[in-house]
Each structure stands twice: as C-alpha cells, then as structure tokens.
Design brief:
mainly alpha; 154 residues; extended
C-alpha cells in the first residue's frame, strides 16, 4: 500500500505512471439536497405520527366501546414492546445478512448470474410454448445477453 506502481509504457500518461495506490481521498459531502430531503421526510413522518396518532387511537377505542358504558382505556404498551422487539430483531437479522453477503459475495454474484440466465431461458421457452413467437425470440435474445454477461463477469 502506498508504493509507486509502474504501469505499461505508452498506454498511460505520465501522471498516471506516478500513481500511488491507497491515496487518502479528500472528505467531501456532495449529497446535501438528498440529505435535507431525507431528514425532512423523517421529521414529517414523526410529525404526522405525533399529530394524528393519538386521535386515531382514540377513534379506535370509541368504535370499540359500546354506547352508554364507561369509557374503556386500552393499554398500548404491548404494541410498543412488540414494535421495539421486532425492530431490534430486524436490525440483528439485517446485520447478520450483511455479514453473510460480505463473506460469500463471490458465490452470491455467481448464483445471481446463473439465476438470471435460467429465468431468461425459462421466459423464452414458456413464451414459445404459449404461442408467442416474438416473446420467444425476445426471451432468447435476453438469454444470450445474459449468457454473454455471465461469461464476461465469471
């Protein structure tokens, strides 16, 4: 890391010949509009939940309570515990899946390529069996493109 790498003479410019591997990139934040939109969306969702959430829950309890009886109060802590524990569980499963995908990235890419080739072939054959000549030809074109791409990537 950090050593000068000699590239093929005549194929690169003089600046590229002195290229250093592992150079520190300048830190920059270039997605300011999208960050603002993301935070605005999160704030809007929280605002909608705070403003309309209690009224919605009260309307639900009014529909459930029979007329003329005492007001029944519902305990929503079970829903909060369920939402919190499912949120934690989903975070843990997502982290585990991320580790698995990083560990077996090459295998997953190869399987997705084979899956794409297989599905395009199935599409072509099923189109021909259903009587769609154009769909079959288009499916075989996609099949051949998928095979070429899989061969190039493999």
């Amino acid at each position: 890391m950090g050593e000068n790498t000699a590239l093929v003479e005549g194929l690169v410019s003089s600046n590229e010949q002195n290229w250093k591997k592992g150079e520190k990139q300048p830190s920059a934040f270039k997605d300011v509009p999208f960050a603002i939109l993301f935070y605005a969306q999160v704030i809007a969702m929280i605002g909608v939940a705070v403003v309309y959430g209690p009224d919605t829950l009260n309307d639900i309890t009014k529909d459930v309570t029979p007329a003329g009886t005492a007001d029944i109060t519902f305990d929503y802590t079970g829903y909060l515990y369920a939402a919190g524990s499912l949120g934690l569980l989903s975070f843990m499963v997502s982290a585990l899946m991320m580790l698995i995908m990083v560990k077996f990235a090459s295998f997953l890419v190869k399987m997705s390529l084979l899956f794409s080739v297989f599905l395009s072939f199935i599409f072509a054959v099923s189109s021909l069996f259903s009587g769609s000549i154009f769909g079959g030809i288009l499916g075989f074109v996609f099949f051949l493109c998928s095979v070429c791409y899989a061969r190039a990537v493999w």
